[in-house]
Write a structure and sequence with these properties.
About 35% of the residues lie in helices and about 25% in strands. It is built from 19 helices and 27 strands. Helix 10 packs parallel to helix 15, helix 11 runs antiparallel to helix 15 and helix 16 packs antiparallel against helix 17. It starts with a helix and ends with a strand. This is SpoIIE family protein phosphatase.
Length: about 650
């Protein structure tokens, strides 16, 4: 029997005629066609032989037929079929094509080609096809089948928009599982394994599409047994539904959090005293209110954007800007916000990439999925910087969230302006203070002397801490440290007045108690409501004898290389309180090798640090550095156990000569 007769006798009917069949080689070229096929296509054997059968059937769009051809060569079962187009009877028709691989050749073990059978679709098949196309074309749905033996996954009626978005060119199950969210991959794999036991499939899971956006999916499938068991089902993109639920949950959470936190955090902004405090509030404490996974701030400085605080070395920075960036670069979201002072909210990677292609490289280095980029305004809507909040999943910022972000950014702008003005005032205050301190102190061969003044970080106002070393007649040295209570120009003026008074009275008085008493009388008689604590002692360079008069000053610390102790001279009231106050004199000897520390209370006392504890910490620190007065001074200024809430003045003296 000839091959043509075999094909004709194998037909099951095409209408009332035998089924149309062709034999094609692996490349798709027709090697044999039965009479029914030539009749139904209207082409002679000579026209058909050698031509690819998909293009003979459907010259306009042969892709579905080619996919069927490749599936058959790949070992797909005969139940794999496709609806293709064919021209016959003067019109184009949709017909069902079924393909089966021919037996393998002995030489390479691969199928020699395929046999393709064509038939008219049943009315139900055509109806199902139309409904499926409508369903997948206008909704986020795909119809799929999974061969449980080969792991090959494909769509039932050709590519759908959702299928192209999720899979692209990938068709293997392992390729697609690699895009499933790591927290869901175990459940998805377990469910697929269960399907090998004949169970139906249903799972909700998250998956990243080929753009990198996270999608929430709902997959359902029915198990179909047979020689080639498979799952056939649907997959729906329920991202919008999940996002809606998240938005409602976020809104409830945000409203609850706002009631507890926003007022407190806004108060912190108002009281912030450094740029780092302001930006730290925005990055560390404000972002969690909105459920943000991270935040960053970039400040405009001389036409450039700089991260504040600087990101760690392994951090990409705000939108990849880990270093200085041109503030006028509108190709970048941050620069665009600075330029037009308009906030920008991006709910997905695709959205930001469409508007700002320049961030494509950055997106490869971050797991963030959505962003809010808010301008930080100063007076007259001058852009001071940008605040950016990022989320680890798609996030829709509600109108209330957006309004609150803008409000907080506005408060941050006011705080930044205030802090910068305060910093300018601090620089001025520091300059004034230092001009009023002695530009140079007296030096003596018998003494090692170190002095330090450190302005407070809080308050940003001129303060009145001071020190002085006075050369006295008879190989004696006057040492004084004081702290004028209050702030401002008045305190600084009083400090200058007291220091000059000490020098004037010390040159005419041997008794330190009398020097302090005269200074007290002078300050009291000025009529100004200013008073000061101070400690004044006279050191004899020949025998090391110290005579001290104290007016409310902290105890002195005397240290050696091995130990330290506190010297608490008998004290009178602060100067300026009572013009008739007396100041007793306390005597002690400073031996060779001893180191003396006199300091204002800013070094050892604050609201969070009792003076006894502060003196203990200072004594322990000084003990190990008693032989190096400059090193000891530097160490104490770096230590500042009581913090930086007040000015600090200190004077360290080491007795080098014989005591």
């Amino acid at each position: 029997m000839s091959g043509g007769e075999q094909l004709q006798r194998a037909g099951v009917g095409f209408g009332t005629a035998p089924a149309a069949m062709v034999v094609a080689d692996r490349a798709g070229g027709v090697t044999l066609a039965n009479h029914a096929f030539t009749e139904f296509t209207g082409r002679t054997q000579d026209e058909v032989l050698g031509r690819p059968w998909p293009e003979v059937c459907d010259r306009a769009d042969p892709e579905s037929a080619w996919k069927l051809h490749r599936a058959a060569l790949g070992g797909a079962p005969v139940h794999q079929r496709a609806l293709v187009s064919a021209d016959y009877g003067g019109a184009s028709h949709r017909i069902v094509a079924e393909a089966r691989a021919l037996p393998a050749t002995a030489s390479d073990g691969k199928p020699a080609g395929v046999v393709v059978v064509f038939r008219e679709p049943l009315r139900e098949e055509e109806t199902l096809r139309v409904i499926s196309e409508l369903r997948t074309e206008n909704a986020d749905t795909a119809l799929w089948t999974l061969d449980l033996r080969s792991g090959r996954l494909q769509e039932l009626f050709g590519p759908s928009p959702l299928g192209r978005l999720l899979a692209g060119d990938a068709r293997g199950l392992d390729e697609l599982l690699a895009r499933v969210h790591r927290d869901d991959i175990a459940r998805v794999r377990d469910a697929i394994e269960a399907s090998h036991q004949g169970r139906d499939y249903e799972q909700r899971f998250r998956m990243f599409d080929h753009l990198g956006d996270e999608r929430s999916l709902h997959a359902r499938a029915r198990y179909i047994p047979g020689d080639h068991p498979r799952l056939v089902g649907t997959i729906d993109d329920v991202t919008e539904h999940v996002q809606l639920i998240r938005r409602l949950a976020d809104r409830r959470r945000i409203e609850a959090a706002q009631g507890r936190q926003v007022t407190d955090l806004a108060a912190k902004l108002v009281s912030a005293t450094t740029v780092e405090e302001v930006t730290g509030l925005l990055t560390d404490e404000f972002a969690p209110i909105f459920g943000g996974a991270g935040a960053a701030v970039m400040l405009v400085e001389e036409g450039s954007l700089r991260p504040s605080p600087a990101p760690p070395e392994d951090d990409a920075g705000p939108m990849g800007l880990a270093e200085e960036h041109d503030a006028s670069d509108i190709a970048h979201p941050v620069g665009a916000v600075v330029s037009d002072r308009q906030p920008r909210f991006f709910e997905s990677r695709a959205e930001i990439l469409e508007r700002f292609p320049a961030v494509a490289e950055f997106l490869h280095r971050t797991s963030a999925q959505s962003w809010a980029t808010i301008p930080i305004f100063g007076d007259r809507r001058v852009a001071l910087g940008v605040w950016q909040v990022s989320w680890g999943e798609p996030h829709h910022a509600t109108p209330d969230e957006r309004a609150l972000m803008l409000t907080l950014a506005g408060l941050a702008g006011q705080a930044l302006q205030r802090v910068r003005r305060q910093q300018e005032e601090l620089q001025l205050a520091d300059a004034i203070q230092r001009r009023m301190l002695p530009p140079q102190i007296a030096r003596f061969d018998e003494l090692g002397i170190a002095v330090r003044y450190l302005p407070a970080r809080a308050g940003w106002r001129v303060c009145g801490d001071f020190y002085d070393v006075i050369r006295l007649p008879g190989r004696r040295v006057g040492l004084v440290v004081g702290d004028v209570q209050g702030h401002g120009v008045e305190a600084a003026a009083a400090m200058g007045q007291i220091r000059v008074a000490f020098r004037a009275y010390a040159s005419n008085q041997v008794d330190p108690g009398a020097v302090v008493a005269e200074t007290n009388r002078l300050l009291s008689e000025t009529g100004e409501i200013v008073f000061a604590t101070c400690g004044y002692l006279v050191l004899d360079l020949d025998n090391g004898e110290m005579q001290a008069a104290w007016a409310g000053q902290p105890p002195a610390v005397i240290a050696t290389a091995d130990s330290y102790d506190l010297w608490e001279p008998e004290t009178g009231p602060p100067v300026g309180v009572d013009s008739d106050s007396k100041y007793p004199v306390t005597t002690r000897r400073l031996r060779a090798g001893d180191t003396l520390l006199m300091c204002s209370d800013g070094l050892v006392e604050s609201s969070g640090m009792p003076m006894d504890e502060g003196l203990r910490i200072v004594g322990e620190n000084l003990r190990g550095r008693a032989e190096d007065v400059e090193g000891a001074a530097a160490s104490l200024i770096g230590l500042t156990p009581a913090g930086r809430g007040d000015d600090i003045a200190l004077l360290i003296v080491r007795m080098n000569g014989p005591g």
